[in-house]
Amino acid sequence: FRMRQRHVLMESTGPAGHCPHLVESVPCEDPMCYRWLMSEGVCIPDHGKCGRGHRILKAVCQNDR
C-alpha cells in the first residue's frame, strides 16, 4: 500500500467541506520492486538541540530477482 498523511494547520471557518481523511492508503498498481534499500539521515531538531525535528528518508528500489 501507498500511504499518505496530512496535518490540519487551521480549522475550517466556513461550512463543513468534504476534506479527505488525515491518513489515506491506496493499493499500489503494480508492485514490481523486489528489494528496497532504505536509509535515513540524521535527525535535525527544529529548535535548539532537543525536541521535534526532521529526518530525510531515502528508499531505492533494486530490481534484481
Order of helices and strands: EEEEEE
Helical segment tally? 0
| Average predicted local confidence, pLDDT | 80
**Low confidence ranges:** none
Widest beta sheet: strand line-up: 1-2
Structural class: mainly beta
Residue share in helices? under 10%
Inertia-based shape: flat
Count of domains? 1
Radius of gyration: 18 Å
Strand content: 35-45%
Q: How far apart are the first and last residues' alpha carbons, in Å?
A: 21 Å
Detailed description of the structure:
- It comes from Lynx pardinus (Iberian lynx).
- This is Thrombospondin type-1.
- There is one protein chain.
- This protein has one domain (2-62).
- The chain is 0% helix and 37% strand.
- It has strands at 2-5, 23-26, 35-40, 44-45, 53-54, 57-62.
- The mean pLDDT is 80.
Which key phrases capture this entry?
mainly beta; two-stranded antiparallel ribbon; flat; Thrombospondin type-1; 65 residues; 6 strands
What is the topology?
Elements (H helix, E strand, L loop, with lengths): L1 E4 L17 E4 L8 E6 L3 E2 L7 E2 L2 E6 L3
Antiparallel strand pairs: 1-2, 3-6, 4-5
Task: Summarize, please.
The protein has 65 residues and is mainly beta. It has no helices and six strands.
